[in-house]
Structure to design on (233 residues):
């Protein structure tokens, strides 16, 4: 009778415990779908209820285990026939029920703890998201300032690169012009070195022309004088 009474209590407790786990998951899912700003774990009452019911079920399981042990001791006592099939069947049935209840309790408890751990993790992530959203204005303003400063730096770098490119092109042009000036200067020096010889040659030619003119003038004069002398004689 004690075993059946404990089993009935355990059955009711386990049903309530399973409903608590289901309602806990459904409540969290409903909150997660209805609003992004609602805390995921606002069910501290459900957590306390879970702890209370878990302790009560563990106590009932302990009592039922004790009753089964006493029944096993009774069946193993010297005054009880060892071949009473009905008695052994009853004891085995109570043991199976205890094992099923124990397994169901641990399974439901593990599922509840897994759901609560998942919700805790999701709640932490959502808190981080909310804190990020709350400071998004300041972060956006700061990010915008950083982007503007970065753009200014890029423009300055581009201007510096253009200035350097212009300076390099100017340097190359000046180098090329310097080479051309050196070439012209060398040609002018060569011509200047050649001019004295040309002048000397021209002077010699002029002198020869003058000499030839004097000789031709002398011959013409002599011939004229001879012709005059011949004419008067």
């Amino acid at each position: 009778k004690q075993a059946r009474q404990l089993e009935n209590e355990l059955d009711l407790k386990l049903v309530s415990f399973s409903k608590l786990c289901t309602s806990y998951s459904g409540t969290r899912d409903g909150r997660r779908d209805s609003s992004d700003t609602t805390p995921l774990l606002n069910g501290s009452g459900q957590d306390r209820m879970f702890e209370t019911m878990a302790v009560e079920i563990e106590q009932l399981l302990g009592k039922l285990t004790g009753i089964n042990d006493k029944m096993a001791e009774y069946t193993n006592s010297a005054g009880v026939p060892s071949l009473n099939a009905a008695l052994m069947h009853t004891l085995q049935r109570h043991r199976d029920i205890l094992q099923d209840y124990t397994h169901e309790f641990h399974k439901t408890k593990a599922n509840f703890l897994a759901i609560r751990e998942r919700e805790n993790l999701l709640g932490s992530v959502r808190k981080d998201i909310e804190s990020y959203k709350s400071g998004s204005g300041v972060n956006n303003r700061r990010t915008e300032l950083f982007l503007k400063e970065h753009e200014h730096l890029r423009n300055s770098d581009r201007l510096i690169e253009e200035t350097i490119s212009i300076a390099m092109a100017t340097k190359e042009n000046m180098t090329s012009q310097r080479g051309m000036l050196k070439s012209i200067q060398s040609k002018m020096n060569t011509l200047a070195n050649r001019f004295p010889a040309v002048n000397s040659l021209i002077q010699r030619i002029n002198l020869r022309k003058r000499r030839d003119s004097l000789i031709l003038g002398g011959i013409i004069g002599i011939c004229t004088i001879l012709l005059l002398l011949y004419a008067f004689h």
Confidence is low (pLDDT under 50) at residues 29-42. DSSP finds four helices and no strands in the chain.
